[in-house]
Amino acid sequence: MDRTAQRASRPPGRTVAYEPPGTAPPLHTRAAAVLEAGWTGASTVPSRSLYPHQWSWDSAFIAIGLRHLSPLRAQTELETLLAAQWADGRIPHIVFNPSVPLDAYFPSPDFWRSSAAGRAAGAPRGVETSGIVQPPVHALAAWLVHLADPGLSRARGFLTRAYPRLAAWHDYLLHRRDLGGGGLVSVVHPWEQGMDNSPCWDRPLSRVTPAPARSFRRADLDHGLPEDRPTDLDYGRYVRLAADYRDGGYADGAGDFVVEDPAFNALLIASEYALDRIARELGAADPARPDRAERLTATLVERLWEPAAGMFLCRDVRAGEPIPERGVSGLVPLLLPALPRDLVATLVRTVCGPHFGLGGTTRLVPSYDLLGEAFDPHRYWRGPAWFNTNWLLEQGLRLHGERGRADALRKGMLHTAGASGFAEYVDPYTAQACGVTGFGWTAALTLDLLHDRPARGRNGLTALKEGDRA
Q1: Where is this region: Disordered (predicted)?
Q2: 341-365 pLDDT, tens digit each
Q3: How far apart are the C-alpha atoms of 149 and 128, rounded to whole Å?
Q4: What are the φ and ψ backbone dihedral angles of 129, each rounded to 5 degrees?
């Protein structure tokens, strides 16, 4: 039997069982306790041990869950992040807490040197940040946080203050990061896309000469198993890319890694719809913005849809060609309202087919092709299932009327979150916890799933699509 056939016939293994009533505190209480433990007074760390600062897209997902506990804290979460925005519009992927020792996380503030190296790009002087970005979930999060308590939001001027910063963020991406010239945003580092060591990056990363191992110390291995984390070779390439970007004054477009990613662009499009809702709420609607979201959807389809793969693929801008790897990123555009119906149907078949196995061999969607040569069920983004991408897919399935599949995925996420101790990520076959437990966005998105109304076919994205203010 060849390798593909062996993987296709692999049994699903142990699944997560339901927690009997009364054996543990309610899931809501446990999830809330995780977020309380990570709260610093101004933002929430993803993990006290492994990620002791504020991360950009983590904070967006955390705010989406926090809105069910404290709309004020959810607003504060996003306000703290937006306060670290650079003058050119970029929202940095890390905002560093000065009270955390430098050796607690690498790359640390003294590596990024944002206030000095980023001066020409408008890095803030009062806070140290990284110089790269992460996926733009923020306008979507801001709109959902507003809906949780519109009275509080209006009284505090939350959207009034957030809107110009969010608009500047989108303008930066659309005007400064169209490095392929085709109308989509490019990422210039794997950390920007958020799925750090995905096999989708192997080909463009192969052009990057890694930094010498002696030039950095990996603090992540103090808290995680080496077999769960990126390899030293990958990490050396990440460090080289980041150092070159820093040494170039954080100017865009000069590096060896330039990739158009479907998930990054899909999240920008979803946030474009949210930004339109925010503008309408403020009486400052831009009639061009909804059209821009639909144009971006059409561009995404034109440039990144691959019919033979049954999904979207990343595009290596430097090589001028698609990257022939199936990652979960290529499924995330399912959350877009204007996606053509035939593409929606094809994506659903791909999610449930042998490459991702939802409803068959897997309870949660893996981060990478089950049949791919690089598949590893435990190593970070090379196969394990993550809660944020599964939440996005649950939203997309429900948005497009796939209620049965959305309900099953929601049920699987809730049970896996509780049984794994809110793990950072899990083995897609066995639901075994990987990475750290008590992870911020796992707990936050658990709360969001507990508070949505699946019986009525509604969730955050259907509210966005309908313009629901209630």
Answers
A1: 1-24
A2: 999 999 999 999 999 999 999 999 9
A3: 32
A4: -135, 175
Query: d(Cα 108, Cα 96) in Å, to the nearest integer?
Result: 8
Q: What is the mean pLDDT of each run of 10 residues along the chain (470 residues)?
A: 35 33 77 98 94 96 98 98 98 96 90 96 96 98 97 98 98 97 97 95 94 68 62 88 96 93 98 96 83 94 98 97 98 97 98 97 97 95 97 97 96 97 97 95 98 60 51
Residue type, 170: H
88, 196, 272, 369: which is the annotated catalytic residue? 196
Count how many residues are written for the chain. Answer: 470
| Residues 422/442, Cβ–Cβ less than 8 Å | yes
Q: What percentage of the chain's residues is helix, strand, coil (to nearest 5)?
A: 50, 5, 40
Please give the C-alpha separations between residue 91 and each of 72, 253, 458, in angstroms, as whole numbers. 21, 17, 30
Sign of torsion over alpha carbons 51, 53, 56, 57: positive
Cβ partners under 8 Å of residue 275, min gap 6: 139, 143, 163, 166, 167, 170, 289
Among this protein's residues, is 306 annotated catalytic? Answer: no
Peptide bond into 11 cis (omega under 30): no
280 phi, psi to nearest 5 deg: -65, -40
Q: What is the spatial distance between Cα 373 and Cα 326, in angstroms, rounded to a whole number?
A: 11
| Residue 196 is a catalytic residue | yes
Q: Exposed, middle or buried by CB within 10 Å (0-12, 13-18, 19+), for 293?
A: buried
Provide the CB-side half-sphere exposure for 348 (13 A, CA): 22
- The whole-model pTM stands at 0.91
3-state secondary structure of 386: strand
Tell me the three state secondary structure of residue 257: coil
Q: How far apart are the first and last CA of the chain?
A: 56
Buried b (16+ CB within 10 A) or exposed e, 168-192: bbbebbbebbbbbeebbbbbbbbbb
Of 149, 228, 424, 452, catalytic: 424
CA atoms within 13 A on the CB side of 403: 9
